[in-house]
Each structure stands twice: as structure tokens, then as C-alpha cells.
């Protein structure tokens, strides 16, 4: 459901850029690459991250949306919540393409999140879980919305607890509160508060 990431390229041309692990650190990358498929598709994956930072994602179980569909608000979506350029009704993808696009979209989203949130810098201790929650939220609502959010402002002020609480406000789709988003924000918040000292 990464609705606001509609202008992101879904091709593989961005693979020469920094890996997700280089952008957010290995522990956060591992969380993102396992939890986003669970949140977006309800599927379980096995992830390994090489010393180079390159991730390998293997489908284990659960649904895999290789064919584009319309999400609950009518946005063309494929794979693990991918939307935007290249995602059109009638188009299909391979498992390998979905994995490459997922990592590329997460890396792009994470790069923007890290740029607008110096409070999540890799040099700061105890930020892996807050970093995960922020990127997960931005993947779902779009990084421009995240970068204008109270969550980002609180993280930059060093107030992790209030930042974790602020992410729960993003629980609507199509102008209405959606039970699935309320649950997802609760799960993201549970990770986030693990970083509260």
C-alpha cells in the first residue's frame, strides 16, 4: 500500500545505489525486509544479508501478489504493496522482480527518511527499532508525508516515546479509520518503543 510512493521507479536501474543495509544498518534492514512482506501481503520470507549489504529474499509461505490488483482505495498494487510507475492493472511480475523492487523501494524510502530525520542517524545508539518503524510508516504512507509528520519532528527532538505514539495517527485509508491500519500502527509502535531508554 505504499500509496504516496507513486513517483518511485519500480525498475531495477537503481540497484547501483547504496543497499538498504548501508542506509539503515543491518538489523533495521533485516526487520524491514521480513516485516514489510508480512504487513503488505501476509507472507513469510527468509532474508539473508551478505557482507556487501545485498539482501536475498526467499518466499517461505503465504500469498504472493505477482499480478497487479487494486487495493482498498483503488490504487494499482503488486508484490508487497508496491504502487506507482510501472505498476498497472494486467501486469505481472516474477518473484525475483518483486524482491528486487521491494529492496529498491525500501532503500529509496529509507534514504529519504534518513535525510529528513537526523534523529535516526546510524551513529546514535538505540535507534534500530525506531528507524524500522519510521521507514515502515513511510513505505506505507509515502516519504513526503512522513517527512512532514509529527513523528519525524519528535524523533529529531530526541523524543522517541512521543514519536512512537505519533505514528499511530496514520490509521486511515480513503478518509476512514481502517482496522488493519490500526493494528499495523500498533505493531510498528511496539517495535518503536523498544528504543525508549
Note the main attributes of this structure.
197 residues, 6 strands, disordered N terminus, globular, 11% strand, Lysozyme, mainly alpha, two-stranded antiparallel ribbon, single chain
Give your account of this protein's structure.
The chain has about 200 residues and is mainly alpha-helical. The protein has helices at about 20-25, 25-40, 95-115, 130-140, 145, 150-155, 160-165, 180-190; strands at about 45-50, 55-60, 70, 75, 170-175, 175. It has one domain (about 5-195): Lysozyme. It is built from eight helices and six strands. A two-stranded antiparallel sheet has the order 1-2. α2 (about 25-40) runs parallel beside α4 (about 130-140), α6 packs antiparallel against α7 (about 160-165) and α7 packs antiparallel against α8.
Amino acid at each position: 500500500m505504499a500509496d504516496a510512493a507513486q513517483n518511485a521507479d519500480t525498475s531495477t536501474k537503481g540497484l547501483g545505489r547504496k543497499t538498504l543495509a548501508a542506509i539503515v544498518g543491518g538489523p533495521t534492514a533485516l526487520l524491514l525486509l521480513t516485516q514489510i512482506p508480512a504487513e503488505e501481503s501476509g507472507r513469510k520470507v527468509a532474508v539473508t544479508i551478505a557482507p556487501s549489504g545485498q539482501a536475498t529474499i526467499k518466499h517461505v509461505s503465504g500469498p504472493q501478489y505477482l499480478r497487479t490488483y487494486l487495493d482498498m482505495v483503488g490504487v494499482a498494487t503488486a508484490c508487497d504493496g508496491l504502487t506507482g510507475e510501472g505498476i498497472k492493472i494486467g501486469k505481472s511480475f516474477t518473484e525475483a522482480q518483486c524482491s528486487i523492487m521491494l529492496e529498491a523501494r525500501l532503500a529509496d524510502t529509507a534514504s529519504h527518511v534518513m535525510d529528513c530525520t537526523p534523529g535516526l542517524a546510524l551513529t546514535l545508539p538505540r535507534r534500530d527499532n525506531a528507524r524500522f518503524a519510521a521507514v515502515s510508516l513511510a513505505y506505507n504512507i509515502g516519504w513526503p508525508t512522513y517527512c512532514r509528520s509529527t513523528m519525524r519532528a519528535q524523533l529529531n527532538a530526541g523524543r522517541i516515546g512521543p514519536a512512537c505514539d505519533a505514528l499511530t495517527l496514520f490509521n486511515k485509508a480513503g478518509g476512514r479509520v481502517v482496522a488493519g491500519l490500526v493494528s499495523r500502527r500498533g505493531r510498528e509502535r511496539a517495535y518503536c518503543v523498544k528504543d525508549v531508554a
